[in-house]
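Hi C.,

You asked whether I'd gotten around to modeling the 275-residue construct. I have! Everything is below, sequence then structure, no commentary in between.
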Amino acid sequence: MEPVKSNNAEIRVAVAGAGAAGSALIEALDAGVPGCVLTAISARDIEAARQRFAHLQSDVAFVDVDDLEPIADLVVECAPATIFTRVVEPFVRAGKRALVLSSGALLTNMHLVDLAREKGGQIIVPTGALLGLDAVTAAAEGTIHSVRMLTRKPVAGLLGAPYLIENAIDISALTEPMQVFKGTPREAAIGFPANLNVAVALSLAGIGPDRTELEIWADPDLNRNRHDIEVDSDSAKLTLSIENIPTDNPKTGRITALSVVAALRKLNAPLRVGT
């Protein structure tokens, strides 16, 4: 089923979540993204969001997350992972598109991919805070032998992670870097739900969430989120490194929202650069 378009053929976009990434995206859409029009916003506190975004030029409906689908063609999920299914399922069931930032939540909701396939919908995972996903997806068309990712984060960006709490790992007074996790993106998606969507995106682009190797370090000397990636394949050896400047929320990089804007620009662009 083709998404229902507005009369001017613009894609009606709903934003679910008004945190750091969601707010930046809302402002960008209101300023203008060719081919897209902002039509709806949902947030934990709808009235507070209505007042906060009263300056928007777009004709926007402020509604509960469950009421987004009828008034949009595509939803951008910027919400807590706990409501991932509530955001995404109505859109893919209607044959529409969902662009998701909580890619870690996708691992426990893969039935939504089957639903999208059945109904003609689509789930889009943007590049987000990573780089090189085009090269990784290209390499995956051949044979990837291994993918390793080492993530270093400022202490503030990891505080409160369920894995640290459950394992009584106290990083609040660190004076030197400390490895706090070694495992797979599937495990990290559970233990660090607000931190490691990047690792899940990498794994989905490459050899999967169970074969990708991941280390997480807390570093008191850092003020940026750093990801170092090594991919060994039969077509190329990739060595990638990125340092992301955080937003006011230390768990979210500024480039995350920009990646979503770039993905939206590509949807109907006359020239599309990159896979």
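If it helps when you're writing up: The CA atoms of residues 186 and 209 lie 5 Å apart.

Thanks,
B.
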